[in-house]
TrEMBL record:
Residues 9-261 form the Enoyl reductase (ER) domain. The keyword Transmembrane does not apply. This is GroES-like protein. Belongs to the zinc-containing alcohol dehydrogenase family. InterPro entries: ADH-like_N (IPR013154), ER (IPR020843), GroES-like_sf (IPR011032), NAD(P)-bd_dom_sf (IPR036291), Trans-enoyl_RdTase-like (IPR047122). Keywords: Oxidoreductase. It comes from Aspergillus ruber (strain CBS 135680). One of its GO terms (molecular function) is oxidoreductase activity, acting on NAD(P)H.
Length: 352
């Protein structure tokens, strides 16, 4: 089969590999559409920087790894312990990061607990926007911020800041928070604000704050939106100097600010935590989120079926696997706003 491996730059090389084999708890999926994420270019770039804190951690990445983790396609084969899925099922899945069998390929490998069924009404393109970003939001909100679950929603006002509300992780966090009756949701966004706005409920105090007005005005707007209430929960999907300054100024002492990057800044007296979505596949330890992600993959699948949950806006990039390199360059140059790049594998030149 054809598979793309990611290198620093970003650069992409197409190689030939055998179709992967599942272990007892995995599924092999014929990939119809692969999604993409900023980490697909960031990790190879980090791995190439001698002296970076993660230089040794990512040593295997320097030779090239298929970084694709968002799978949408048809089940090809299942392990002997897999009972929920069978060959021919339409599914989406979150691939284990840095493991063999990534989604930039004709066939990919996923654990059954991070795989979910797709109704016929959900396109593979939409489905490919969900797995990594959706589960990142799940781990951030329900593991690190310990917010109430959608099936046991909040009964009291619970202000939540989502900094980067129009990013895929931010938008999924808002959708999930709505289902958990978390309000007011204060979304911080810029040119993608119009997209995030549609998921907010102004009758419950939800609003968008435009960070382009500058950090001091952003701080004042957030405080106004909170109506004097303490803000104890925030999710930062951007993690820049400005977002750190704003959140340090508005989150109450002892509150929790969760970050989607590996090294959270000092936000004392608030508590800073960071989300590793790889915890969806982590065995053991305090951050083992396998059960949490198993539950939410089923919840997402049902939400898609009932049309109470949806994916992120997407742009289909041309060329299939051959289009991954240019798309990742565009991600690196911040050209994507409120959109995820996806790839139809069958569009790859030379495939039958």
């Amino acid at each position: 089969m054809k598979s793309a491996i990611n290198l620093a730059g970003p650069a992409v090389k197409i190689i030939d590999l055998p179709i992967p084999e599942p272990n007892d708890d995995q599924v092999v999926i014929k990939v119809v559409v692969s999604g993409s994420n900023p980490k697909d270019w960031k990790v190879p770039d980090i791995a190439a920087v001698d002296g970076h804190p993660f230089f040794e951690r990512y040593s295997q990445v320097r030779e090239g790894v298929n970084q694709g983790d968002d799978i949408a396609g048809i089940v090809e084969k299942v392990g002997k312990n897999v009972v929920e899925f069978k060959p021919g099922d339409r599914v989406a899945a979150f691939h284990e990061m840095l493991a063999p069998g990534g989604s930039y390929a004709e066939y990919a490998l996923a654990w059954s607990h991070t795989t979910f069924h797709l109704p016929k009404e959900t396109s593979f393109e939409e489905a490919a926007t969900i797995p990594l970003a959706g589960l990142t939001a799940v781990v951030a909100l329900y593991h690190h911020l310990a917010l109430p679950f959608p099936w046991a929603p909040a009964k009291n006002a619970t202000p939540l800041i989502v900094y980067g509300a129009s990013t895929a992780v931010g938008a999924f966090a808002i959708k999930l928070a709505q289902k958990s009756n978390i309000h007011p949701i204060i979304g911080v966004a810029g040119r993608g604000a119009h997209y995030a706005q549609q998921f907010l409920d102004s009758s419950k105090g939800d609003c968008i704050v435009d960070y382009r007005n500058g950090p001091e005005e952003t701080i004042q707007d957030i405080r106004k939106a909170a109506g004097g209430a303490e803000i104890r929960h925030a999710l930062d999907t951007i993690v820049l100097e400005e977002s750190t300054h704003v959140l340090r100024s508005v989150v109450t002492s002892g509150g929790n600010v969760n970050h989607v990057l590996a090294s959270p800044p000092d936000l004392s007296p608030a508590v800073a935590t960071n989300t590793w979505v790889s915890s969806a596949h982590q065995e053991g330890g305090a951050d083992d989120c396998r059960d949490l992600c198993f539950l939410f993959c089923r919840w997402i699948g049902r939400g898609l079926q009932q049309r109470t949950f949806s994916g992120h806006p997407f742009e289909v990039r041309s060329g299939g696997l051959e289009g991954v390199q240019d798309a990742l360059k565009d991600l690196k140059e911040n050209k994507a706003s409120a959109v995820k790049y996806v790839f139809r594998i069958a569009d790859t030149p030379g495939l039958p």
